[in-house]
Amino acid sequence: MRSPYRKHERQSFFKYMPESTAKVVLANRTLRWSSPNIFNDPFDVPREIAFGLNPGDFVEANSRRIADLINNPPEDTSRLPDKLCRIVEAAKRGLPADVKSEMLQALQEMSVSHRPPEDSMEGLRETWRKLIPDYRILCLTESPSHIAMWYHYACKYQGAVLEFRCIDELDSPWLGAQPVTYMVEKPDLYTADGWAKLMMMKTTADTVSEMMNIAAYTKAADWSYEKEWRVSSFKRESDSGHYTDYTFNRKELAAIYLGPLISEPDAEELVRLSRNYPSVSVLRVSIGFDRDLHFNPVSG
User: CA–CA separation, 23 vs 125, rounded Å?
Assistant: First the structure.
């Protein structure tokens, strides 16, 4: 039976980690979901939003956004505030030039009164500051064959990669994983025009939801080689600090890939821990003369 939480057709995902982390994960049967506050990449989820923007920037962008909505009305208006939605729908049916001009002026005044720029931006900034410490993200990827990721995330080839099955019957959390979008242009959180679009959503909840989606699931195009997927959640009431260790089912662990430069004692310990999992494969990774990674099953 297909899980209602499944958002993709993938059968598994991979998690790169140092050998010390792999031992803890296998011994405790937990994966660490982290707040963006402790991510090591300063270009990842922003700690502050609308940085460098002021109300004047927003008012100008807001005017441009309103003009665009009237002159080029979108097909889907369901996420616009009700009053704006009705006017844009009217614009779709055609308006005389003088009526359109009066409408643009009225809409600009309405947009400022609907959510005053200075109050709204500061309010959203404060909401964001409160959300980020409690936000939890698990980062995964599509393959155990990323050489750069072995170097950066698996302790310079000395670590390991764990493969996790997507099991519908268990409602595996990574059934809900979403791919990261790698963007050439800056996303809406970083531009005044983007903020004008975000602030014209129907409710503050809609705006915050879209902010979270952009922040968690977009990165700069430079990182596209990672082919990253993410699952997000929030901390439990009993948690403290900037991470949460969630348990996983033993059946969800599909394979353990031992790094090309892993020490023999570490490899032996991971093999020993693998015996606690009923259907796991252990593979030793090597770098061939062809400069490719090769995967060889480990017995016992």
Answer: 39
**Cβ burial 108-146 (10 Å sphere, 16+ → b, else e):** beebbeebebeebbeebeeebeebbeebbbbbbbeebbb
How far apart CA 203 and CA 196 sit, in angstroms, is 14
pLDDT greater than 70 at residue 113? no
Look over the chain and give the mean of its residue pLDDT values, rounded to a whole number: 87
Q: How would you classify the pairing of strands 181-183 and 218-220?
A: parallel
- What does the domain layout of the chain look like in residue ranges? 12-47+135-186+211-297, 55-129+189-204
Cβ within 8 Å of residue 238, ≥6 positions away: none
The model's confidence at residue 21, banded by pLDDT at 50, 70 and 90, is very high
pTM of the model as a whole: 0.83
pLDDT tops 90 at residue 97: no
Residue 173 CB coordination number (10 Å) = 19
The whole-angstrom separation of Cα 33 and Cα 243 is: 6
